[in-house]
Design a protein that fits this description.
CATH superfamily of one domain: Cytochrome P450
Structural class: alpha+beta
Subcellular location: Endoplasmic reticulum membrane; Microsome membrane
CATH class of one domain: Mainly Alpha
Membrane topology: Peripheral membrane protein
Helix content: 40-55%
Distance between the termini: 79 Å
Strand content: 5-15%
Radius of gyration: 23 Å
EC number: 1.14.14.1
Largest sheet: 5 strands, mixed
Shape: globular
Cofactor: heme
Order of helices and strands: HHEEHEHHHHHHHHHHHHEEEEHHEEEE
InterPro entries: Cyt_P450, Cyt_P450_CS, Cyt_P450_E_grp-I, Cyt_P450_E_grp-I_CYP2B-like, Cyt_P450_sf, Cytochrome_P450_fam2
Length: 494
């Protein structure tokens, strides 16, 4: 009994010491927010449903810019379209720093194109954009790859003969194969055991990263890292993916032809060789592994999760599905595959895809930013290194930009003449210098995969539309749609 009391006392003492040590010295003039308690920060004022609910509630009281203490450290929260644009676009350079996400930081440690800062980030981003462009991003090359992958999916869905399916596997497979073709120079068979294992690791990690336990870890990582939890499973999963990436890099190294680079990894290895005598070069092995992990993870999860939400919404609103299929039949017909050029003649389908992205709200609190120097913003002074969360969800649900922000309504993106209209609050890929690297490819994937599936199949569910629940199963760094079953029923041609 005495031992238990002593252990508890030691744990509490350790927690207080760690939190006190991690408490930053206040300087500058941060925006007001809920009053923090020593060590606990604003934990007791947080919503039990997680950070997003908490931030939106605080926005009601403190306005669009306020400070929240996540455990011992202050974070500036920016809500609303205008405030987010002022920060990430009007002051793009100073808000371009990247803060850590506690549950994945032990893996990335500031390496790779997503979590790097300073010159490392600038060099890696320039290289990644140029290389992905060379391998087809935004060009005809990638359109043809997506069309081919979409036809592979159609054949796979035909084999199901209308049986109930969990769509996770299909949507992961097609989106992963597109990024794999750019990064690894190959696509995988849908039944390849190694491929299936990688997809399982990616999906499980995305769910865990978005869980409530990972949000709690964000507040007290310096203490909780010593205990079991989802952070350890995430680390294990991503390390296993990194082992695969490392093997692939070695295979590329052994078969590299300097005159004919096949993919992103080849181009990176050539750049490493070119820069080997430059001690300032950012092109080393660690940045290669972490950049490939970043592209593979983001390139698979973002589009596949959006597609999963999209088809759940099609089951919920069958009249919208029917209208899309009517537009597909009129513009494309049934005997040729959809092409990117069709998008301009299909405003309703395009508006629906925009609305799916808005409603799915994939990365609701945004990937954390950091200011790169002392910064004046809306009358406050944010010291260099201050973490900033741009709450993208607050823009995507802003009532002055979307008439019915909590409803799924494609008319949000159509003008009075039925033409797709631009909306400043539409920022599912974020905005500014840290905008998603794969925005261009994701937009092409969403249109071609979505239209190809609905050209060939009607969708059905064992659950009545009015009973379909759209509530995310997890809502943290990402919004994870609920699990559901779907039937893909072949449509009659002609």
């Amino acid at each position: 009994m005495e031992l238990s009391v002593l252990l508890l006392f030691a744990l509490l003492t350790g927690l207080l010491v760690l939190l006190a040590r991690g408490r930053p010295k206040a300087h500058g003039r941060l925006p007001p927010g809920p009053r923090p308690l020593p060590f606990l920060g604003n934990l007791l004022q947080m919503d039990r449903k997680g950070l997003l609910k908490s931030f939106l509630r605080f926005q009601q009281k403190y306005g669009d810019v306020f400070t929240v203490y996540l455990g011992p450290r202050p974070v500036v929260i920016i809500c609303g379209t205008e405030a987010i644009r002022e920060a990430l676009v009007d002051q793009a350079e100073v808000f371009s720093g990247r803060a850590k996400i506690a549950v994945v930081d032990p893996i990335f440690q500031g390496y790779g194109v997503v979590f790097a800062n300073g010159e490392r980030w600038k060099a890696l981003r320039r290289f990644s954009l140029a290389t992905m462009r060379d391998f087809g991003m935004g060009k005809r090359g990638v359109e043809e790859r997506i069309q081919e992958e979409a036809q592979c999916l159609v054949e796979e869905l035909r084999k199901s003969q209308g049986a109930l399916q969990d769509p996770v596997f299909y949507f992961h497979s097609i989106t992963a194969n597109i990024i794999c073709s750019i990064v690894f120079g190959k696509r995988f068979d849908y039944r390849d055991p190694e491929f299936l294992r990688l997809l399982e690791l990616l999906f499980q990690s995305f769910v865990l990263i978005s869980s409530l336990s990972s949000q709690l870890f964000e507040l007290y990582s310096s203490f909780l890292k010593y205990f079991p939890g989802s952070h350890r499973q995430i680390y294990k999963n991503l390390q296993e993916i990194n082992v695969f990436i490392g093997r692939s890099v070695e295979q590329h190294r052994e078969t590299l032809d300097p005159n004919a680079p096949r993919d992103f990894i080849d181009c990176y290895l050539l750049r490493m060789e070119k820069d080997k005598s430059n001690p300032q070069s950012q092109f080393d092995h660690q940045n290669l592994i972490m950049s490939v992990l970043s592209l593979f993870f983001a390139g698979t999860e973002t589009t596949s999760t959006t597609l999963r939400y999209g088809f759940l919404l099609m089951l919920k609103y069958p009249h919208i599905t029917e209208r899309i299929q009517k537009e597909i039949d009129q513009v494309i017909g049934s005997y040729r595959p959809p092409a990117l050029d069709d998008r301009a003649q299909m405003p309703y389908t395009d508006a629906v895809i925009h609305e799916i992205q808005r409603f799915a709200d994939l990365i609701p609190i945004g990937v954390p930013h950091m200011v790169t120097k002392d910064t004046h913003f809306r009358g406050y002074i944010l010291p260099k290194g201050t973490e900033v969360y741009p709450v993208l969800s607050s823009a995507l649900h802003e009532s002055c930009y979307f008439e019915k922000p909590n409803d799924f309504n494609p008319d949000h993106f159509l003008d009075a003449n039925g033409v797709v209209k631009k909306n400043d609050a539409f920022m599912p890929f974020s905005i500014g210098k840290r905008i998603c690297l794969g925005e261009g490819i994701a937009r092409i994937e969403l249109f071609l995969f979505f239209t190809t599936i609905l050209q060939n199949f009607s969708v059905a569910s064992p659950v009545a539309p009015e009973d379909i629940d759209l509530t995310p199963q997890e809502s943290g760094v990402g919004n994870v749609p609920p699990n559901y079953w779907i039937q893909f029923l072949p449509r009659q041609r002609g």
